[in-house]
Amino acid sequence: MRVPTHNPPPGIIGHNRTMLMPGYCVFPPEGIMDSLLPNWPGVTVRFQTSRRMGAGFAQALLILPPGTGSAGAVDDGVQAFLYVQDGTLEVTVEGAAHPLGTGAYVYVPQGVPYSVRNAGQGEARAIWVRKPYQPASGVPAPNVILGHRDTALKEESGPRWRHCLIGLRDMPMDFEMNIMCYAPGAHFWCIETHVMEHGMVMLQGQALQLLGRDWHELWAGDFVWMGPYVPQQIYATGNEVCEYLLYKDVNRDVI
Q: For the segment 77-136, what is each residue's pLDDT rounded down to a tens digit?
C-alpha cells in the first residue's frame, strides 16, 4: 500500500481533482489503488479503466521491480499493447526476446502468447492496454508490431504534432495508439464530438481539458477516459510541451 507523500490542506480532507461521470473520468494517479494478479507475481497493477466503468477496453499501469514480470506466457484471449514509460522490459513473443527501453512499445495480436520481464537493474513502468479484437470481413488479422516513439511516423500541424505508434490508416487494426504533443498555449482547433472512445495518460506537462460542459486541469500522470460522443477539447498550459499517450478505437463500423 502506498503511503501518502503529502497531506490535504487543513479543513479540506476530500480535496481532489477526481471526476467520474457516465461518459468520462479524470483520475489523478494518487487515487488509483494497487492491485495484485496471480499471473504477475511481484508486479503492482494500477487499473485505470475497464469494462466495469463502461469502457470497451482495459488499461493499467504496470510497476515491475527488477526480475519481476509475467509468470510464463500471457494468453488471455485478447490483443495487447505495452508502452514502456520508464526502465527496461524484455518481451518475448513468437519465440524471440525483445529488449524494450523507455519509449519503446509492442503490439501483440489476439491469440498470440507473450511474456514480460523486467530485465533492468531498476524499477520499470509500462502502460498495458488490452481489448477483444473486432475482426472485419476480408481484412487479414494484424501482426506483431515493435517500435519506439522516436522512430514512429511523426505528423505535424504547427504547434501540435503526434507520434503515430500503431493503427493509423491500418485496416487490420481496430485501435490506434498515438502520443499527442502540444506546445505551451496550443489547443485543438474545435470541440470534438465523435464516435471514437479514448483513453489518455498524461506523460508530461499540464493542460486544461473540456469534457462535456466542464473544464478539468490535467497534470503528468493523470488518466482520462472519454466515451463516444463526449464533447472534448484540450488546451496546453504550463511551461513545457504537453504530451499524452492516447488510445482510440478506429476502422470498424458501429452497427
A: 999 999 999 999 999 999 999 999 999 999 999 999 999 999 899 999 999 999 999 999
Helix (H) or strand (E) holding 206: strand 206-211
Q: How far is CA 175 from CA 66, 81, 208, 242, in A?
A: 31, 10, 25, 22
- Phi and psi at 149, nearest 5°, equal -60, -35
Q: Copy the grid coordinates of residue 132.
A: 477483444
- Residue 210, SS3 per DSSP: strand
Q: What angle do CA 44, 45, 50 make, to 5 degrees?
A: 170
Tell which residue, 96, 87, 91, has the closest CA to residue 66.
87
Distance CA 160, CA 234 (A): 11
Q: How many CB atoms lie within 10 A of CB 120?
A: 18
Compute CA distances 255 → 156, 195, 242, whole Å.
33, 12, 35
Global pTM?
0.94
- Residues whose CB falls within 8 Å of the CB of residue 150, separated by 6 or more in sequence, listed in order: 103
